[in-house]
Amino acid sequence: MNPPKSFFQLLAVALFLLPGVLPAQQKEIVTFPLRGFCIAAPRPADVDQFVKFITEELVPRKVNTLILRIDWNYQFVHHPELRDSVALSKEDVKKMVWACKRGNIRVIPQINLLGHQSWAGTVHNLLRVYPQLDETPHVKMPEKYSWPNADGLYCKSYCPLHPDVHPIVFSLMDEICDAFESDAFHAGMDEVFYIGDDKCPRCGGRDKAELFAGEVRVLRDYLAQRNRQLWIWGDRLIDGKTTGLGMWEASLNNTHRAVDMIPKDVMICDWHYERPDKTPVYFAMKGFKVATCPWRNPSVALSQVEDMRTFRRDATPEIKENFQGIIQTVWSDTRSFLDGYYGKKKDPADKGNTPWNCFRTIY
Fold this sequence. Notes:
The chain is an alpha/beta fold. The protein has a domain at 33-113 and 166-190 and 208-235 and 258-362: Glycosidases (TIM Barrel), CATH 3.20.20. The protein is built from 13 helices and ten strands. The strands form two sheets. Strands 1-2-3-6-7-8-9-10 form an eight-stranded parallel barrel, surrounded by six helices. Strands 4-5 form a two-stranded antiparallel sheet. Residues 86-332 form the Glycoside hydrolase family 20 catalytic domain. This is Family 20 glycosylhydrolase. One of its GO terms (molecular function) is beta-N-acetylhexosaminidase activity.
């Protein structure tokens, strides 16, 4: 065998031979209880390519949890009026489920609940079909959306106290969890700016933290009756002013106190994309299991992986398992991610900051 000639080759060999350096790090990330990947569910035409990605990319990297953002991309039987015009069939879903079963990957479907009922100038299916569920019906969708705006409109929310909302939501949760044979459900619940609106006849004047916590408890309790776990994003449970994290990655509308009002078996997905903020410690010390969620910045993601490793290493036995691991998030459609991952599109302006580079870096 020819000896390595370059400095980088020599460095790689040296790192491999040093006991406890590279092999130990690789072993530690492999032993995170949760090695996750979160992406929008593919459209029907992309299911086979996504199954290939599961089999050839997720499984060899020992990814063990796949969060699929479904929303309205499924041919719901009990509420067909809420389907997208092109949506996954039960057969499409089974292809993904079988691929994950073969690879020992847990599948968790997501439907955005409470917030994210609109985007830019488009009202999503729930409020489009059932406008009476809107928390802020007086806020009209603009012809041309811009932020910031006078109405404080980012995304619409449904009213958590409307008597008609939960029968619909529960049916959707049951059907999608049954289809994906899942023992958990991700409800989203991030970036909820509209809650407890003063003009809402049911919510006006109520404590926003209690309203948010109430919705978490309602969803959690319903799932628990079916031996399923609730997962949510963690931003609404962080005080955006005290931490300096602001209104996006944390709350400036006083929902953060809900962290002390919800059951401790709710799984927290703690997302930070531009800085490796140490908020997993906050959630773990509050008694929650938590995973750190990077997006597209590989250097930030590496710091988050190292932090999670350190948190687990230095924690007391009582709190160690609250630090569950890492979830790589993708906030584009599936086809765009796969095109980037397989080199079918390139954006030099990103300078390497892409979700596919981030995924390759942490796994």
